[in-house]
Structure formats: structure tokens, C-alpha cells
Write a structure and sequence with these properties.
The chain is of the alpha+beta class and 431 residues long. Helices cover 36% and strands 16% of the residues. Keywords: Membrane, Transmembrane, Transmembrane helix.
């Protein structure tokens, strides 16, 4: 065994005479391993950065103009199916209302390439563009177009407002550090954002297809459609709540015919006109079908509406169908509705309902009878509360929810009539 061990050690150069050689081999192995790890790390980092660049469409979530200090947000970057047209959609904050121009001709855009360190680079894609203002909604956008799909590249987009509608003392003097080397931000009211229209993280928008830029179609798809869907979901919730309350009322009506105190029953009170005959028809949504709920009623609040909203849409429009034949202006129609005074029938107070018993006495006068009349009083109180709850839900539905649906249509109409597009050669300049 000893001889075998010595022979093996000699062959592997493990003896004391080969220590320097062994050190060199070990050092080489460690160095090679370190180099491999370093290369792997660099390759992984480059791959991660490339993946992040491929996915990230927007690097700037908000903005503030350099001179007038108006703030806003960037809602997203949208592209057509081919990836040859992109829209950067922005919105001024509500506090900026009336402080910015709503005419696209008063804006310019400047575009150049960039990297993640914000260093200027040459554009890899030949890009032209237009500026879109969506009326007085506060939304504006820059449409970028190319003959070929956008390359993967961060681009720097600067917007300039050539019309300042507010005055700020010392405007433009306190610029952000990253803008201080560009004197145009002090001279003009500008803001900058970074985006990558070639990224996989863009959202596809059908309204960006076709040759013509249609502000109304864009605004409906990218802004109104989501608001409309949220409103329709809320209205479905209201209808389900109304249906549940009507079921409660039916339950309490049954109790009036069943529950008695010493043979005395409640005479069912007259159903308020605001509720009489009401029913919620249709079905709730399930895994296989959309909801079909609808309110059937003969009474509509003077300031409320009653129309089939489910079979139409804001884009198709409701106003033309619900306006009286002799009315030509939807503005006048909506204004008169909003100012309508409550009629006698709309003044509802459940506590004013009359509650008589089959013996001719008024249930509300049994205050000294202790607990004996509690079963009947409980039915009275529950029914009274149910009617009050239903009236509140119904008026919220007719006055608020249906009005909100019409207001979305009015806003969309305003974009159709007042939206503007600046497609002039100077609208977007690249460098």
C-alpha cells in the first residue's frame, strides 16, 4: 500500500519538490473560475437589461411643465397591430383646467434617441409624428409613425407649449437638475418624457389602425370605454341591490298576512307611487353569460332618466333616442332635466305611510301596549325601512348613474367637435 501511494504521489506531482508547480495550477484554476463567473454575470446582466428594455414601454409616469409648472400624468404608450404607429397619451391634472391651450396647433414635439443613462443617441427608427388634443378634457397625445416596426430603443420626447395661459413669477429659473443644461426649458414651457414604442409592454389599440388619426375614436377606446365599463358594473350592482330590497318588501307583505296579535293583522298600506309596480327583470352574470338585469318602472324622478342602456353604448349614443321630438339641442334638454323641480309625487317619506290594523286602529298609536304589539311594529319598521332604501337606490340609479352615462356621451361629443390634430411638418422634429 505504501509503495502504491508513493507511486501515485509521484505521478500526480504531490511531493514536496513540486509545490511551486501545484501552486501555479491551483492559481490558474481559481483565476479561470473567477473569469467564467465574471463573464456569466456580465452576460446575465446584459440579458436582464435587454429583457427590461424589450418589455418597458414607459419610463416617465408624470410630468411638470418647466415655466407654468402645470402637472400631469402619462397614462400609457399604445401601438397599432403592426407596431408602426404609437401614441403616448398624457393628461393634465384637474387643477390645471383652463390653464393650457386646447388647440393642437399651439404645441410642438422634439424627438431623439436616448439610453438608460439619459445620454442622447441617434434614432434607430425614422419617425414622423402628430400632436393630438382631445378638446378640453385635459388629455393630449403624441402620435409617432414609422414605415417599419419601431426598433427597440428608449427615445426622449420633449413637448413644447407655444401658448402660455398662466403667468408664474420667475418661471423657468428653478429647473430640475437634469434640464438645466438645456436652455430651451427656461425659454419655453416644456416637459420631457422617455418611452420605448418598440417594447413588448405597449398596449395595442384598435383606434390607431387606419390612415386617419381620429381623436374621438382614440378617446373612446383609451379613456371612455373603461369608465363606461366601471359605470355599467356599478349599475348592475345597483339593480341587484334594488332586486334584493323588492324581495324584502314582498317578504314583509307576506308577513302582514301571516303574523297577527290576538287575531289582529296589519292592513297592507298603499304602495308608494315611486315603488308601485316596480320590478327588476333579467338575470345576473354567470360564467357563461352577460348580465341582463333591467328596471321596469312607471315612475321616473323629474331629474332622472329611464332608458335601455344595456343594448346601446356611449360610442353609439343615447341622447338622440331619449330627447323629445320637439327638442333640437341636447344641451338644453340636459340642462332642463338637471334644473327640474321635485313634483309632489317625488317627495317621498316612508314615515308618512299609514299603518292601520284590521280592527281599525292605527298601529303607530300603540305606544303604551308594551311588547304585545312588537311583532306588528317590527313588520311596520322593516317595511318602512325597505321602502326608504329602495327609493334611495332607485333615485341614485335614475338621477346619478344614468346621468353619468349621458355625461360620458357629452364628453365624447365634445372631443368629436373640439378635438384637434397638428400634423404639420413642424409638429414633431427629430434630431
Amino acid at each position: 500500500m505504501k509503495e502504491t501511494t508513493k507511486t501515485f504521489a509521484a505521478k500526480m506531482k504531490l511531493g514536496p519538490h513540486h509545490a511551486i508547480e501545484r501552486f501555479g495550477v491551483i492559481t490558474s484554476i481559481i483565476t479561470a473560475t473567477f473569469v467564467l463567473l465574471l463573464v456569466s454575470t456580465v452576460i446575465s446582466a446584459v440579458g436582464n437589461n435587454r429583457a427590461r428594455l424589450d418589455e418597458t414601454a414607459l419610463y416617465t409616469a408624470s410630468f411638470t411643465t418647466s415655466r407654468t409648472e402645470l402637472s400631469g400624468s402619462v397614462d400609457g404608450v399604445y401601438t397599432n397591430e403592426e407596431g408602426t404607429r404609437a401614441l403616448a397619451l398624457m393628461r393634465f391634472d384637474d387643477s390645471a383646467a383652463g390653464s393650457f391651450s386646447t388647440d393642437a396647433a399651439n404645441y410642438q414635439a422634439f424627438l431623439t434617441g436616448s439610453n438608460e443613462q439619459l445620454d442622447t443617441q441617434a434614432l434607430r427608427t425614422t419617425i414622423t409624428g402628430s400632436i393630438v388634443l382631445f378638446g378640453s378634457t385635459g388629455y393630449l397625445g403624441v402620435v409617432l409613425e414609422s414605415d417599419a416596426p419601431f426598433e427597440q430603443q428608449i427615445i426622449s420626447l420633449t413637448l413644447r407649449a407655444n401658448s402660455e395661459l398662466v403667468y408664474k413669477e420667475d418661471s423657468g429659473r428653478a429647473l430640475r437638475e437634469d434640464l438645466q443644461d438645456d436652455g430651451s426649458f427656461a425659454e419655453f414651457d416644456q416637459w420631457r418624457l422617455f418611452l420605448n414604442p418598440g417594447a413588448s409592454g405597449t398596449e395595442e389599440a384598435a383606434s390607431l389602425a387606419g390612415a386617419r388619426i381620429d381623436p374621438s375614436a382614440m378617446y373612446y377606446e383609451l379613456v371612455v370605454a373603461e369608465q363606461e365599463e366601471e359605470l355599467r358594473e356599478a349599475m348592475d350592482e345597483q339593480l341587484m341591490e334594488m332586486s334584493a330590497v323588492l324581495n324584502r318588501i314582498d317578504e314583509y307583505d307576506g308577513e302582514m298576512n301571516r303574523v297577527n296579535v290576538d287575531g289582529v293583522f296589519i292592513e297592507p298600506p298603499e304602495v308608494p307611487v315611486q315603488v308601485d309596480g316596480d320590478a327588476v327583470t333579467g338575470e345576473e352574470a354567470d360564467a357563461d353569460s352577460e348580465p341582463t338585469l333591467a328596471l321596469e318602472t312607471d315612475w321616473v324622478h323629474p331629474r332622472g332618466y329611464d332608458f335601455d342602456w344595456r343594448s346601446g353604448s356611449v360610442e353609439e349614443g343615447y341622447l338622440d333616442a331619449i330627447m323629445p321630438e320637439d327638442e333640437t339641442s341636447y344641451v338644453t334638454f340636459l340642462g332642463e332635466k338637471a334644473r327640474a323641480e321635485d313634483e309632489e309625487s317625488s317627495r317621498f317619506e316612508a314615515n308618512d305611510m299609514e299603518w292601520y290594523l284590521t280592527d281599525g286602529n292605527d298601529l303607530r298609536e300603540y305606544r303604551e301596549s308594551g311588547q304585545a304589539m312588537d311583532p306588528l311594529r317590527e313588520i311596520m319598521n322593516n317595511t318602512t325601512q325597505a321602502y326608504q332604501d329602495y327609493y334611495r337606490l332607485k333615485t341614485d340609479y335614475q338621477i346619478d348613474s344614468l346621468s353619468n352615462l349621458l355625461e360620458l356621451e357629452v364628453t365624447l361629443r365634445s372631443v368629436t367637435s373640439a378635438g384637434s390634430v397638428n400634423a404639420e411638418e413642424e409638429a414633431l422634429l427629430t434630431y
